[in-house]
């Protein structure tokens, strides 16, 4: 079915990964997107035909009609290429369905959860690569080691990030399924916290016979999911400080470094070992333990997995270092849920040492901003200075009365600045920092563009002799 695949929105993280794997397997790949992206360079070099702009004619201009058109949830039925494909009887697959096709014949490890799935998937991939297993993988972010979000490997394992946001992970059939945590999110689609939680139970039902569910014992909803799965006869493995049992992974201690991660001591398989994690934050160490346990379930040796985890250099947009200017370190992070924001700001505080923490936060989705405004404000108060931008609406239409101001007005324990004009944000942020501070741009939208702009503004101020006072 995927011999000649046309991907609508081919520049997206998930779609470009599928295109990479298809090309590596010898398929003919075409696609389109609304605008150019950095993903196009690699895909075109590998042989993909990519059109900028989405039009029905893009299908007509191909040498042969595609055997399948692949779409993501973001593609609306009114999309001209999708409408043309349906009119012509071309099979249409959701991105997850296409990925499930690519997984056939492999031992599949799927990493799911509200938070941490990209980092955990990436850690497991790097650890298995260190064990020379050369897994295929599809991740929602680019590995810093390879700069890639997907790869067709020569080994028997396929590692994939499993997306619960639209329930599309229910088409996978994993041998190993990891659930890092469960916390209500994506309620614009799932409507209620109960419905959101229930989709994880259905995901567990997709585990193949003889497979295993791995859950975080410290997260109560995930632990309860594990208990329900065990009652249904699923083999369950647990990790975290609360985990017990010879075959689980119990965290005994975590020793942070000032700037660059820390060491977590784990009891696993009846023995203890230290795992070095080169990215800061105890939540990242917990993710590393999840990856370690998943790797052991895939029959990789724990010692080699630990060595591989020590070499993990992070994922693009997961506390990604963008540069230093005027003795200010600038990072970028994808956190867009209150729990993620709080966890990452604690890690930033660790990295800052005696310096202050300045965050430029862009809310993502009007519904999420409205539902979690109080929680966002509390999380952002972990910083010293907060710049709140306006909402990045993504797939949603604006809601009356919902803007970044909704969050900014609730922040009382930090200095807050609401800046609805995106083009003024870099100058504002550069004027707030002082030498020794750490600044992080944060959110799932185009806030990622601000890091380089802030660094240029800091350089310009230093060159002009402007004092960096943070006033």
From TrEMBL:
Boundaries of every Mur ligase C-terminal domain copy: 317-445
Catalytic activity: UDP-N-acetyl-alpha-D-muramate + L-alanine + ATP = UDP-N-acetyl-alpha-D-muramoyl-L-alanine + ADP + phosphate + H(+)
Keywords in alphabetical order: ATP-binding, Cell cycle, Cell division, Cell shape, Cell wall biogenesis/degradation, Cytoplasm, Ligase, Nucleotide-binding, Peptidoglycan synthesis
Gene Ontology molecular function: ATP binding; UDP-N-acetylmuramate-L-alanine ligase activity
Metabolic or biological pathway: Cell wall biogenesis; peptidoglycan biosynthesis
UniProt main location, coarse: cytoplasm
GO process terms (BP): cell division; cell wall organization; peptidoglycan biosynthetic process; regulation of cell shape
GO cellular component: cytoplasm
Gene3D superfamilies assigned: Mur ligase, C-terminal domain, Mur-like, catalytic domain, NAD(P)-binding Rossmann-like Domain
Cell compartment(s), UniProt: Cytoplasm
Mur ligase N-terminal catalytic domain ranges (all copies): 5-106
Biological role stated in the UniProt entry: Cell wall formation.
Entry's family note: Belongs to the MurCDEF family.
Listed PANTHER family: UDP-N-ACETYLMURAMATE--L-ALANINE LIGASE (PTHR43445:SF3), UDP-N-ACETYLMURAMATE--L-ALANINE LIGASE-RELATED (PTHR43445)
The protein, known as: UDP-N-acetylmuramate--L-alanine ligase
Gene: murC
């Amino acid at each position: 079915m995927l011999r000649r695949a046309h991907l609508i929105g081919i520049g997206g993280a998930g779609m470009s990964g599928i295109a990479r794997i298809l090309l590596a397997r010898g398929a003919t790949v075409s696609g389109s997107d609304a605008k150019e992206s950095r993903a196009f360079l690699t895909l075109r070099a590998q042989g993909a035909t990519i059109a900028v702009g989405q039009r029905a004619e893009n299908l007509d201009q191909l040498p042969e009609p595609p055997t399948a058109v692949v779409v993501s949830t973001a593609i609306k039925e009114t999309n001209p290429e999708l409408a043309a494909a349906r009119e012509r009887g071309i099979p249409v697959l959701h991105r997850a369905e296409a990925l499930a096709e690519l997984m056939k014949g492999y031992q599949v490890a799927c990493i799911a959860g509200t938070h941490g799935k990209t980092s955990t998937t990436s850690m497991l991939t790097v650890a298995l690569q260190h064990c020379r297993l050369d897994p295929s993988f599809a991740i929602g972010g680019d590995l810093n080691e390879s700069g890639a979000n997907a790869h067709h490997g020569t080994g028997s394992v396929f590692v994939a990030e499993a997306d619960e946001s639209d329930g599309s992970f229910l088409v996978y059939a994993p041998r190993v399924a990891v659930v890092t945590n469960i916390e209500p999110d994506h309620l614009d689609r799932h409507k209620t916290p109960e419905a959101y939680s229930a989709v994880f139970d259905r995901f567990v039902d997709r585990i193949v016979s003889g497979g295993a569910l791995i859950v975080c014992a410290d997260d109560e909803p995930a632990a309860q999911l594990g208990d329900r799965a065990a009652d249904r006869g699923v083999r369950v493995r647990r990790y975290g400080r609360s985990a017990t049992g010879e075959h689980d992974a119990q965290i005994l201690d975590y020793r942070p470094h000032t700037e660059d991660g820390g060491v977590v001591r784990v009891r696993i398989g009846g023995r203890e070992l230290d795992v070095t994690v080169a990215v800061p934050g105890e939540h990242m160490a917990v993710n590393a333990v999840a990856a370690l346990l998943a790797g052991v379930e895939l029959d990789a040796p724990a010692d080699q997995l630990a060595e591989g985890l020590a070499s993990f250099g992070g994922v693009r947009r997961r506390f990604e270092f963008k540069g230093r200017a005027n003795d200010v370190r600038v990072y970028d992070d994808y956190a867009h849920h209150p729990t993620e924001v709080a966890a990452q700001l604690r890690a930033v505080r660790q990295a800052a040492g005696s310096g202050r923490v300045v965050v430029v936060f862009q809310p993502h989705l009007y519904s999420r901003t409205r539902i979690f405004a109080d929680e966002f404000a509390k999380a952002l108060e972990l910083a010293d200075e907060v710049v709140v931008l306006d909402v990045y609406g993504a797939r949603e239409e604006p809601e009356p009365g919902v803007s970044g101001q909704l969050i900014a007005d609730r922040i009382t324990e930090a200095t807050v600045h609401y800046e609805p004009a995106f083009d003024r944000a870099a100058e504002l942020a550069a004027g707030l920092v002082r030498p020794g501070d750490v600044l992080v741009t944060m959110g799932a939208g185009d806030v990622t563009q601000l890091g380089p702009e802030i660094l240029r503004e800091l350089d310009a101020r230093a060159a002009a002799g402007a004092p960096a006072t943070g006033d």
